[in-house]
Amino acid sequence: MTALESDLREGFFSDPPTVPPRWFYDEKGSLLFDRITRLAEYYPTRAEAEILRSRAVDIVGDASTVVELGAGTCEKTRVLLDVFAAPPGGGGARADAAPLFVPVDISTEMLFDSARALTAEYPGLTVEPVVADLTALDGPLPGESGGRLVLFLGGTVGNFSEDQRADFLAMLRGVMDSGDRLVLGFDLVKDPARLVAAYDDADGVTAEFNLNMLDVIARTVECTGLDRVDFRHEAVWNADESRIEMWLRAVRDVRIDFPTLGCSRTLDAGAGIRTEIARKFEPDALMDELAEHGFLRGPVWTDDAGDFGLALVVV
Ligand code: AVJ
């Protein structure tokens, strides 16, 4: 069974049907996400970049290894690498061991492309890409125990359910050692109208990003009756769960058959498929949750507008 088939089996035949957000990111989807990060309505990427820029020195500290989970193009990390890969003695407090950067991602091609580019751009930086599912890391992370800085940026921690997030933090704690630090980017609760706009932009880029998932599914698994013209994009604020939800809502009755799975799924007009949750946090509650998993409280920074947060915690 392929990865998509097992994801569908797990979520597509329950109520509501769900598909995990990782199926957004084929080549087209990755380009669309890139456009999303530059939309006027989508503040998280810019807000996080602002914090990284102003706090780079505090974040890097005396780390000897930087591990980035879900590194992608490593674009947002460069501002940290500028500090991290600077020659020692240039004012930094780092030991004089060669700085090691470990980008971790499931997308092999993008990972190796960006690793190659970084190696060329930062002489003196050792880049050791790791292809892995970030929810299933095993063994100790590369690098010197106690000298690691683990980055999980972009607010992706919000894409987990409450249970998945607890599992993720427990796993992460298990692969980190005493003295290792974690920097976590998270989106903050704010006016629902702004949140909805960030996930339902006027140009329809996010709508296209969401609908593209149907093309990915139709192309990747044998199926009939799955067609994007039968769906429309929807972003809703779920106040009870403190999260934005992205849905693909059927505009007419739909029946989708998956011969290799031996299953079919009917959706009445108005029924939806949930493709993403994006949890928004109150900093104190998130810090308490991190503490429960053995991460000691450190500074929490926000951008000037107070839209996005970055927490630094220590094992
Ligand atoms: C990259 C997963 C953090 O949830 O805000 C953007 C993805 N989805 N617009 C997010 C996304 C719709 C984004 N993350």
UniProtKB/TrEMBL annotation:
The Gene Ontology biological process annotation of the record reads: methylation
Query: Which Pfam families would you find in this protein's record?
Result: Methyltransf_33
Question: Where's the Histidine-specific methyltransferase SAM-dependent domain?
Answer: 5-313
Superkingdom, according to UniProt? Answer: Bacteria
Write out the entry's keywords from A to Z: Methyltransferase, Transferase
* UniProt-listed InterPro entries: EgtD, EgtD_Methyltrsf_superfamily, MeTrfase_dom, MeTrfase_EgtD-like, SAM-dependent_MTases_sf
Recorded GO molecular functions are:
methyltransferase activity
Concerning PANTHER family, the annotation shows:
ERGOTHIONEINE BIOSYNTHESIS PROTEIN 1
Could you identify this protein by its name? Dimethylhistidine N-methyltransferase
